[in-house]
Amino acid sequence: MDVYQPSGARRKKRARNDEEPALSRERIVATALQLIDEKGLDVFSLRAVAKALGVYPTALYWHVPNRNALVVEVIGHVLSEVVPPRDLPWEPWLRSFITSYRTVIRRHPNVAPLIGVQLLSNASVDLTMVEGVLKKLSEAGYSGEPLVSAYNSVIGTMVGFVTQEFAMVLDNDVEDWMQRMSGIVARIDPDDHPVLTAHKDLMVNRSFILRWENGATAPLDGGFDFYVEVLIAGLKALAPAGDTQAAGVPQ
């Protein structure tokens, strides 16, 4: 039996559907990232993304085959913002590269564990980023095995500090956790730990280990900037002498 609908209602429904953006990979990825930002990774699923988009979960499979594939797309989208202009000299390029990554993760802190602790993230990397890092290190004088070691140091610096800075915080019992950490600090014995005692006011909730908030609310700006400069200084100090041709960089 047909159910009658007024023609005006039918036209109104069609018009509303016509105004909705078509389902696309880009729209799915943007919605997934928004859900991860708002709800975290524990509740992230294809079903949740489909619900947010107002479609059935099966509609997503035309664009992404499973949750892992969607996670890879989200990571790739986030990392697409971190590569600096290629015409920068190697030092400011690397400094901008690492700093841009932290800036992006600061906007999307729930993504940090996906990149820092899961090899799944490797499938999302744009090889242009890898080539960019290698080229800038080549410009600094690196080639062969030292180039690979320097590359690993750069990526480790970029991901490692930020992953720990934006480590997940407790969803519950935050007050108990804060009181416990405060109690540990209050009981520091100055005889056993004189240097820590002298600096504890500077370190409490502003340094690794002695904190209960992550970088979203208590950023470690000074430590990060120092870390980056240590890396740059180390790369300069250890770089083999030579020009870009000796390092194997195409001219």
From TrEMBL:
Q: Which GO terms describe its molecular function?
A: DNA-binding transcription factor activity; transcription cis-regulatory region binding
Domain HTH tetR-type: from-to ranges:
22-82
Which protein is depicted? TetR family transcriptional regulator
Keyword terms of this UniProt record: DNA-binding, Transcription, Transcription regulation
- Gene3D superfamilies linked to this entry: Homeodomain-like, Tetracycline Repressor, domain 2
> Which intervals of the chain are annotated as region Disordered?
1-20
Indicate whether Transcription appears among the record's keywords.
yes
Its GO biological process annotations read: negative regulation of DNA-templated transcription
InterPro entries (UniProt xref)? Homeodomain-like_sf, HTH-type_TetR-like_transc_reg, HTH_TetR, Repressor_TetR_C, Tet_transcr_reg_TetR-rel_C_sf
DNA-binding region(s), residue ranges: 45-64
SUPFAM superfamilies the UniProt entry points to: Homeodomain-like, Tetracyclin repressor-like, C-terminal domain
